[in-house]
Design brief:
By secondary structure, this protein is mainly β. The chain contains 19 helices and 67 strands. A hairpin with a 5-residue loop joins strand 40 and strand 41. The termini are far apart.
C-alpha cells in the first residue's frame, strides 16, 4: 500500500446530512483552534475500573448535527493519559493537546461533542473501554457568528452517559435544557475554543470537518520548528507538471463496452423516461485533479475525450441506442483520446500527492421521429451522468518525464470523488494482470515544468490565461449527479488549459442561446449558470463564433470582476452633512426641591382637596424616594379591582436659575399628555396665582398656585388646583388586560407638556414614573411629586467648518441645551374600589400567554349549532329553532305572505323588542280571530276566501324557502366547515415589539401534501429563517422541535411546507407592527373646562376610547386548493413605552433632516475609545412609512448616529411619529422608543448684529371672521413686535406686523412668534424666525475686579468722545442687563465733546470671569462702537 493509499484510507469521513449540502453557493469556512487542557472530577474514579490494570484516559471529539441527529466527520482521539490525584486536589487527567479544524456549516445546531473514555485491561489481558461522560461545545451562536469559548474557572460541564444518547428522538433543541441530560456534579473539562485565521492558508490541503492535532503531518505543509504545525502554517513549494497524449482503452473494445453499458441503462427500471425514445452517449468527460490523500488540492479540471476515429474525421459524435434496435457498427479507433495538454500547477514533491482521473459519461434522451438524436448538443435535451472508471497515479518525488500506463478501477470501492462507479467485469478466474486489462487502462506522457516542450509551447499566454488562481477556499468537487460548473470544463479544440466549456455548451447557435434561457430537466441538465455565462460570451463582438471564447475565465470571481461594475461609481465612506444632536435620554426626576420649608407649608395650606379612599378615610401618602417592590401576583390577587387614577395639578414654581423667567413667565398655563390608552388630554387654561403674599421670599423663586378659570374669564374660587380622574375597571378592560395595565404602571413614564395659555408657546416638558401608583394590596396610595419642567434648545444647523471634521469623517455633535423653566407640583393617587358585579372574565391572559397554538386546545371557531345562526353556542351545543324569515332578512323580503310585515318588524327589532310589545301583538291577533268566528255568513265566506288566498301564498312561500335553502346550502355548509377548521388566537401587541407563537399544523390525510401559507396582513409573517426562529425560541423558552430549511419560498415569497401523511409540524409566526395611525393635527390650544353636575372643583371623569382590534386570517392550503386549517388572529394593541421625546420646529413644506447621536448605553464601562469588539449593531424603524430613517456607523469604537428625513406640512401643522431602536438583527424588542413632534412654521430669515436693532415686517392675512389677536414671542428681550398689544385682524384682510430684532449673543438660533386669538385662545399663525447674528468689532476693552457674593455692587465710569462735528444722540445697550445697568440709557453730546457713562455692576453670587459688552448706538439704533468689559469676581 502506497503513501497516498494509506493516508486516503485513514481519513475517510462521514459527510454531513443531505439537507446541509444543498446550499449554493458554498458558504465561507471558519477556522477554529480547540485547546484541551485537563479533565477534573471525582467521577473519573469508576468502580468498574478498580479491578482492571493499565487504566488511562482519552478524549474523543466528533461533529454532531443536533437538528438532524447526525454524527459526521471522523472521530478524533487524543493520546492516552494516566489519572493523577494529589492531596487536597480532585483527581485529574492532564492532556494539553490542541486540535484544529474548519467548517462552513455556520448553524447554531452544529456542535462538537467531547467524550471522556477510560481505557484499561481486564485480568485476562483483553482491552476494555468505558465512557466517563461527554460535553457539548457550540461552534456558532444564534447569529451564525463563531463562538469564542474561554472557560477559565468553571470549565465545560460533562453529562452522564455516552454521546450515542444524542441520537434519541426526545433530545431536541435547545439540547442543554433537556431534562433527559443530567450534569455530572463536580466534573468538568478545562478547554478553550477560538477562531484561528492562520489556518485559512491551508484550506486547500485540509478538508472541512476534519479534526487534526497540532503534531499531525498534512501533505503539502512544511514541518514546524517548534512543534505546532498549524500555529503559523507554511506551505511546500509547488511545481507544474504536464500530462499529454492521454488515451483511455476500455475492455474488450470501446464499441462493445458502450453497447453493454447502454443495454444495462435501457433495462434499468428507474429510467421510465425512455418510453421508446433514443438513448445516446452525449459526452465523455475526464476529471483530472491533484489529491493529497485528504482532499483535492484544487477543483479537478474537466476535459472532454472523444473516440479516436471521430477525431480523425474532425467532428464529435455520439453512440446511440434505441430500444429494440442494434448498435451501429464501427471498425475505427477504439480509444478515447485527449490531445490537449493538461497543466497541473498544484503538484508538490511529496509521496502522498497523487493525480486522480475519473471518467464520466453524459447520456441524453432524445425523441426524434426516426429514432435519431436531432441534435446531441441541444441545451434542452435531458441529460444525466454516470461515473464509469477512475484511476490514481502516485508518482515518486524524483520522477522524470516518462510514459505512464495505469489500470482503471471501478465498482464499490472508495474513490477520492466519493461517487458510485460503474461495475467492473466479473473476473473470478482471471489473474491479476488480466484483471487490470479487463477494467481498462489509461496512458499518458508525463513531464515537469523545467523541461522543454517544443510541440505546444507556442501559446504561453493562452495557457496562463485559463489558469484559475489558487483559492484558499476552493469550491467542492462537482457531483456526478449534477453537471459541473461551467468554469471547470475544457474543449478538445483548444490545446491549452481553458475555462472548461464542453461541446454541449459551445455548439449552440448564438441567437437561440442569447434569446432563451434553457430549463433544467429533472434528470439533471446543464445549470442556468452555463447559459448565463455563454450568453455573456456571445454578446462580445468576435467573428469566430462561440468556439473562439474558450479561453475566457467564466468563474464566479472573474464574472464579478469583468462585469460592467467598472463604470459604476463607488460610494465614499459616509460623512454626515447635518450636525448630529446628542440624545440625552429622559431627564431624571430631581428629588430635591427649590422651595424652603416655609414655602412648602404655605403651599400645602392653600386648601387643595383631600382625597379619601373607599372607606372615607384619608389616602395613605407614600414617599417617592422609597423603592417600589413590585409583585404582580399581589396586584392580581387584590379584591379591589376597580382602580380610580387621580391626577392633581397643584402649583408651578419658577426656576431661580432661569435668567429670562421674569420676561417669559406665563400668566396662564395648560398641560397636554396621554395616560394609558385613554384619549390624549388637553387641560383647560389654569391661572398662576402667587402663593407668597408676604413677599418675604425672592419673587423669582416663589410658587404659583394653579386656579381654574370660568367661562367668563373670572377665577373659580373653589378648591385650588386641577383634578383629573380615570376609572380603570373590569368593564373598561378587555379580557386579560388587567396584567397589561399593571405592567404599564410599573414600567411607564408619563410625559407631560406644559404650554403658555396666552401665547400657546411650549414652556417645557416633565416626566413622572407611575410605579408609585401600584397599591400592592393597599386600599389607596398617593404620592406628591415635584417635577422639573425642562425645555430642550437645539442650535440651528450650520455649514460644517473644516475644524469640525473628526478623524473618522464624522462631525462633532452639537450640544442639546436643557433649560429648567420651573417645577410642577403634581399629586398622583390610585384609589381601589370593589367591583359592582362579579367579574367573570379571567384576570390572567387568555391563550395568548401560550406560545403554542393548536386546533385541539379549545380555540376552534365552531362548536355546533345552526347553519344560519350566527349566535354564540349555548350550553350543550343546543340551538333553538327559529323561523327562517326571522333570521334571514333577504329571505323575508321575498315572501308573499301577509306575515311578511310582522316578520320584517320582528326581524328588525328581534333583539330590541320588549316582552310587552310581543304580548300586545298576540292579544290583538286573538281578538281578530274571535271576531271572525262571531261574524255572519258573508264574513265567513270572506274569511274562507282569505284563508284560501293565504294557503296559496303559503304554498308559494314554501316553494321560495325550499329554493332559497337549496341555493345557500352549499355556501352555509362550506361556512360551517370553515368554522370547524378555524382556530382563534388573541395577541396583545405593542409598537415595535415582535410577538412570537407557533401553530401546530397537522396533515389529516393519508397522503403527503405541500401546504401554502398565506396571510391577509403583512404584519403577521411566517419565520422562514432558522436562525431567527431559534432566536425567538430562546427568548420565549419554547422547547418545540426546530427544523433547518423547513420552508420553500415561491416566486412571490409565499412560504410552503411539506407535510408527510398524518404529520404535525409547528409553524413559527411573528407579528410585528411598525405603523401607527398619525393624523397630522393643527395646533389649536387649551380646551374649555366642562364642570360635572354638583362638582365645580374637578372635571368629569375621562372616558376611554379602546384601540381598534385587528383581525388577521391565515390560510393553510394544500395542493388543489384544499384548506387544511384556518388561523384567525385577533390583535389587541397596547400602549408602548416612550423613553425620550424630541420636539422640532421647522419651516413649513420643507424636509427636516436631522442626525441624532445615539447614547453610549451599549459601550462597556471603561472601554477605550476605538475598541472594535463588544459593540452591538443598531437598527431603527419608524412608525410612519413615509419617513426615512437609518443608522450610520462611523467605524469600530466610534459613536453611531440616526439619520432622519421628514417631510413637513403646512403651518401650523404638527406631525407626530415614533422611532424604535434595536440592538438585535431580528428586531425582537426595542431597546428604546423615541417620540417626535415636528411643528411646521412659516420661516423668516434675519441677518443681524448683536446689540443693534434690525427691523422687518410680516404680512398678516385675515381669516373668514374678524379676530382679536395678539403677537407673542419666545424671546421678548430680543424680539419685539408692533403693535405690542391686542389689535383687530380684519376678515380676509391684509395687515403688517412690524418686528424689531436686537440679539444679545452671536450665533444662529431660532425665535418663535405666535399670533393668537385672545378670545378663543386659538393659534392663528406661527413663524420660525431664524437669526444669524454676528458680533460687532470691539473698539475698546476694559478690565475690572469685583468681590463675589452679596453686597451693593460697584459703580464705575468710562468716557466716550463724539467723533462727529455735529451734535448726536446715542443709546446704550448691553448683552448682560442682569449684571450691568446704566445710569442713563441715552445721552446727547456735542461734536467732538466727551461724555462720561455711568456704570453700575450688580453683585455676582459666585467667583469667575464674565465678558460684558457695551453697545453705543446712534439715533437709528445702529451700532457706532462696542466696548468690552472683562469683570473678574474674586
Amino acid at each position: 500500500m502506497g503513501e497516498w493509499q494509506r493516508i486516503f484510507v485513514q481519513n475517510l469521513t462521514v459527510p454531513p446530512h443531505n439537507q446541509r449540502r444543498r446550499h449554493s453557493p458554498p458558504r465561507e469556512s471558519t477556522a477554529f483552534q480547540f485547546i484541551l487542557k485537563s479533565v477534573e472530577g471525582d467521577a473519573l474514579k469508576l468502580r468498574a475500573l478498580d479491578e482492571m490494570s493499565d487504566v488511562e484516559f482519552q478524549l474523543r471529539l466528533s461533529f454532531f448535527d443536533v437538528t438532524y441527529h447526525h454524527f459526521f466527520g471522523k472521530t478524533w482521539r487524543s493520546a492516552t493519559k494516566p489519572l493523577k490525584a494529589g492531596l487536597g486536589h480532585p483527581p485529574a487527567v492532564v492532556f494539553h493537546e490542541t486540535v484544529y479544524f474548519h467548517t462552513s456549516l455556520d448553524y447554531p445546531s452544529i456542535v462538537l461533542v467531547v467524550e471522556v473514555v477510560a481505557t484499561a485491561r481486564r485480568r485476562d489481558g483483553t482491552p476494555q473501554e468505558m465512557s466517563c461522560g461527554f460535553g457539548i461545545v457550540h461552534l456558532f451562536n444564534s447569529r451564525s457568528e463563531p463562538t469564542n469559548l474561554n472557560l477559565k474557572d468553571k470549565g465545560l460541564s460533562l453529562y452522564h452517559g455516552t454521546p450515542r444518547a444524542l441520537l434519541h428522538p426526545l433530545l431536541q433543541e435547545p439540547i442543554e435544557m433537556n431534562k433527559n441530560l443530567m450534569v455530572i456534579d463536580s466534573c468538568h473539562l478545562q478547554c478553550s475554543l477560538q477562531p484561528h485565521p492562520p489556518l485559512e492558508a491551508v484550506y486547500h490541503l485540509l478538508p472541512e470537518n476534519t479534526l487534526v492535532s497540532s503534531l499531525q503531518r498534512i501533505p503539502g505543509m512544511l514541518a514546524a520548528h517548534e512543534g505546532d504545525l498549524f500555529q503559523k502554517p507554511r506551505l511546500m513549494k509547488t511545481v507544474t507538471w504536464y500530462l499529454e497524449k492521454l488515451s483511455i482503452h476500455l475492455y474488450p473494445s470501446l464499441e462493445r463496452f458502450e453497447e453493454e453499458l447502454l443495454d444495462l441503462l435501457m433495462s434499468d427500471q428507474g429510467n421510465s423516461m425512455l418510453d421508446g425514445n433514443t438513448l445516446a452517449v452525449q459526452e465523455r468527460r475526464l476529471h483530472i485533479g491533484v489529491h493529497n490523500g485528504f482532499c483535492f488540492v484544487q477543483p479537478p479540471q474537466v476535459v472532454v475525450v472523444v473516440p479516436e476515429a471521430e477525431v480523425a474525421r474532425g467532428r464529435t459524435g455520439s453512440l446511440q441506442r434505441k430500444q429494440g434496435a442494434g448498435v451501429r457498427p464501427s471498425s475505427e479507433g477504439q480509444a478515447l483520446v485527449l490531445r490537449s495538454r493538461i497543466h497541473l500547477t498544484e503538484m508538490v514533491h511529496h509521496p502522498a500527492f497523487g493525480v486522480v482521473l475519473l471518467l464520466e459519461y453524459v447520456f441524453s434522451v432524445a425523441s426524434g421521429p426516426d429514432g435519431k438524436t436531432p441534435s446531441v448538443t441541444s441545451l434542452t435535451t435531458p441529460a444525466y451522468m454516470h461515473s464509469i472508471r477512475w484511476a490514481v497515479w502516485n508518482p515518486s518525488p524524483d520522477a522524470a518525464s516518462s510514459n505512464v500506463v495505469l489500470p482503471l478501477q471501478g465498482g464499490v470501492q472508495h474513490n477520492p470523488s466519493h461517487v458510485l462507479v460503474y461495475k467492473t467485469p466479473p473476473a473470478t478466474m482471471s489473474s491479476e494482470e488480466v484483471k487490470q486489462v479487463e477494467s481498462g487502462t489509461v496512458q499518458f506522457h508525463f513531464s515537469t515544468g523545467s523541461e522543454e516542450q517544443p510541440a505546444v509551447a507556442g501559446k504561453p499566454s493562452s495557457s496562463t490565461k485559463g489558469e484559475a488562481p489558487l483559492s484558499k477556499n476552493p469550491p467542492p468537487t462537482p457531483s456526478p449527479r449534477s453537471p459541473p460548473s461551467p468554469q471547470v470544463l475544457v474543449s478538445t479544440q483548444d490545446y491549452s488549459r481553458g475555462p472548461g466549456l464542453s461541446i454541449s455548451q459551445l455548439s449552440v447557435p448564438p441567437v437561440s442561446c442569447s434569446s432563451k434561457t434553457p430549463s433544467q430537466p429533472s434528470g439533471g441538465a446543464l445549470p442556468s449558470q452555463s447559459s448565463e455565462a455563454l450568453r455573456q460570451l456571445q454578446e462580445q463582438d468576435n467573428p469566430r463564433g462561440a468556439i473562439t471564447h474558450l479561453e475566457s475565465n467564466l468563474s464566479y470571481s472573474s464574472l464579478a470582476q469583468e462585469s460592467p461594475t467598472a463604470d459604476q461609481l463607488q460610494e465614499l465612506p459616509f460623512t454626515p452633512v447635518h450636525v448630529p444632536i446628542m440624545a440625552l435620554g429622559p431627564h431624571s426626576e430631581s428629588p430635591s426641591t427649590g422651595l424652603t420649608r416655609a414655602a412648602l407649608a404655605r403651599l400645602r395650606a392653600s386648601g387643595f382637596p383631600q382625597l379619601l379612599d373607599c372607606n372615607k378615610e384619608p389616602v395613605q401618602i407614600v414617599d417617592p424616594v422609597d423603592p417600589v417592590n413590585f409583585i404582580p401576583q399581589r396586584e392580581e390577587a387584590d379584591l379591589l379591582q376597580n382602580n380610580e387614577i387621580i391626577l392633581q395639578f397643584l402649583a408651578f414654581t419658577r426656576a431661580a436659575e432661569d435668567r429670562t423667567a421674569l420676561e417669559t413667565w406665563p400668566k396662564t398655563i395648560y398641560f397636554t399628555f396621554q395616560f394609558y390608552r385613554f384619549p390624549p388630554v388637553t387641560t383647560p387654561r389654569l391661572q398662576l396665582v402667587n402663593a407668597d403674599t408676604s413677599k418675604a421670599a425672592p419673587f423669582i423663586s416663589s410658587s404659583h398656585i394653579l386656579m381654574q378659570i370660568k367661562e367668563d374669564g373670572t377665577l373659580n374660587l373653589g378648591s385650588p388646583g386641577f383634578q383629573l380622574k380615570y376609572m380603570v375597571d373590569p368593564g373598561f378592560l378587555k379580557p386579560g388586560e388587567q396584567r397589561w395595565f399593571i405592567r404599564y404602571l410599573a414600567e411607564h413614564t408619563l410625559q407631560i407638556d406644559a404650554w403658555d395659555g396666552d401665547s400657546l408657546l411650549l414652556v417645557g416638558s416633565a416626566a413622572v414614573k407611575l410605579k408609585h401608583l401600584l397599591r400592592q394590596g393597599r386600599t389607596a396610595v398617593q404620592v406628591h411629586r415635584e417635577l422639573e419642567v425642562i425645555t430642550m434648545e437645539y442650535k440651528q444647523d450650520t455649514a460644517v467648518m473644516s475644524g469640525e471634521i473628526l478623524k473618522h469623517g464624522g462631525v462633532k455633535p452639537i450640544g442639546v441645551h436643557a433649560v429648567v423653566r420651573g417645577r410642577l407640583h403634581l399629586s398622583l393617587a390610585n384609589i381601589g374600589h370593589l367591583c359592582e358585579q362579579r367579574q367573570r372574565k379571567s384576570i390572567s391572559l387568555p391563550p395568548s400567554c401560550s406560545r403554542i397554538i393548536s386546533s385541539h386546545d379549545g380555540n376552534s371557531g365552531f362548536h355546533g349549532g345552526s347553519l344560519l345562526s350566527s349566535n354564540a353556542y349555548s350550553a350543550g351545543n343546543v340551538c333553538q329553532a327559529q323561523k327562517l324569515a326571522d333570521v334571514d332578512s333577504e329571505l323575508a323580503a321575498m315572501l308573499f305572505s301577509r306575515l311578511r310585515e310582522v316578520s320584517a318588524t320582528f326581524q328588525h327589532s328581534s333583539r330590541e323588542a320588549s316582552v310587552t310589545r310581543r304580548r300586545k301583538l298576540e292579544r290583538m291577533l286573538s281578538v281578530r280571530r274571535r271576531e271572525s268566528q262571531e261574524g255572519d255568513a258573508a264574513k265567513k265566506a270572506s274569511l274562507i276566501t282569505g284563508r284560501h288566498e293565504d294557503r296559496i301564498q303559503h304554498a308559494r312561500d314554501l316553494q321560495i324557502i325550499e329554493a332559497y335553502r337549496e341555493r345557500i346550502k352549499a355556501e352555509s355548509i362550506a361556512s360551517m366547515l370553515s368554522q370547524a377548521i378555524t382556530t382563534r388566537h388573541t395577541l396583545y401587541a405593542t409598537f415595535g415589539t415582535a410577538e412570537f407563537f407557533e401553530f401546530a399544523l397537522k396533515n389529516p390525510y393519508n397522503v403527503q401534501h405541500t401546504v401554502t401559507i398565506e396571510t391577509d396582513n403583512p404584519e403577521l409573517s411566517v419565520i422562514v429563517d432558522a436562525r431567527e426562529w431559534r432566536h425567538f425560541k430562546r427568548l420565549t423558552q419554547t422547547t418545540t422541535p426546530l427544523e433547518e430549511d423547513m420552508f420553500h419560498l415561491q416566486d412571490d415569497l409565499t412560504p410552503q411546507v411539506y407535510l408527510r401523511p398524518k404529520e404535525t409540524v409547528h409553524i413559527p409566526f411573528k407579528y410585528q407592527a411598525f405603523s401607527l395611525e398619525h393624523a397630522a393635527t393643527m395646533q389649536q390650544g387649551p380646551t374649555e373646562l366642562m364642570f360635572s353636575k354638583g362638582k365645580e372643583d374637578s372635571a368629569a371623569p375621562w372616558k376611554s376610547c379602546g384601540m381598534q382590534t385587528k383581525h388577521i386570517r391565515v390560510s393553510f392550503t394544500a395542493s388543489g386548493g384544499k384548506l387544511l386549517a384556518i388561523l384567525s388572529v385577533n390583535v389587541e394593541s397596547q400602549p408602548h413605552v416612550v423613553d425620550q421625546t424630541f420636539r422640532f420646529y421647522h419651516p413649513e413644506l420643507t424636509f427636516l433632516k436631522k442626525s441624532i447621536r445615539l447614547p453610549p448605553w451599549h459601550t462597556l464601562p471603561g472601554a477605550p475609545v476605538g475598541m472594535p469588539g463588544g459593540e452591538p449593531e443598531m437598527f431603527v424603524r419608524c412608525s410612519d412609512p413615509n419617513i426615512i430613517c437609518e443608522t450610520k456607523k462611523m467605524g469600530p469604537g466610534e459613536p453611531q448616529d440616526v439619520f432622519l428625513k421628514v417631510a413637513g406640512g403646512p403651518s401650523p401643522q404638527i406631525k407626530r411619529f415614533f422611532l424604535s431602536i434595536y440592538t438585535d438583527p431580528w428586531l425582537a424588542a426595542p431597546t428604546q422608543i423615541w417620540q417626535f413632534y415636528l411643528h411646521s412654521l412659516q420661516r423668516v430669515d434675519v441677518s443681524c448684529i448683536t446689540g443693534q436693532l434690525t427691523r422687518l415686517s410680516l404680512v398678516l392675512r385675515g381669516t373668514q371672521a374678524i379676530r382679536k389677536v395678539k403677537a407673542y414671542t419666545s424671546h421678548p428681550h430680543e424680539l419685539t413686535v408692533d403693535p405690542e398689544g391686542i389689535f383687530i385682524l380684519p376678515a380676509n384682510g391684509v395687515q403688517d406686523l412690524h418686528l424689531g430684532v436686537r440679539p444679545q449673543s452671536a450665533g444662529s438660533r431660532f425665535v418663535y412668534l405666535n399670533l393668537v386669538d385672545v378670545e378663543y385662545h386659538q393659534l392663528v399663525s406661527s413663524w420660525l424666525v431664524c437669526l444669524s447674528c454676528r458680533q460687532p468689532l470691539v473698539s475698546k476693552a476694559f478690565e475690572i475686579v469685583l468681590p463675589p457674593g452679596g453686597g451693593k455692587g460697584s459703580n464705575k465710569r468710562i468716557t466716550y468722545a463724539n467723533p462727529y462735528p455735529s451734535r448726536r444722540v446715542y443709546f446704550l445697550h448691553t448683552n448682560r442687563p442682569d449684571l450691568l445697568q446704566f445710569k442713563e440709557d441715552s445721552f446727547e453730546i456735542g461734536g467732538g465733546e466727551t461724555y462720561t457713562i455711568g456704570l453700575r455692576f450688580a453683585p455676582s453670587q459666585s467667583a469667575g470671569e464674565e465678558e460684558i459688552l457695551i453697545y453705543i448706538n446712534d439715533h437709528e439704533d445702529k451700532n457706532e462702537e462696542t466696548f468690552c468689559v472683562k469683570v473678574t469676581y474674586q
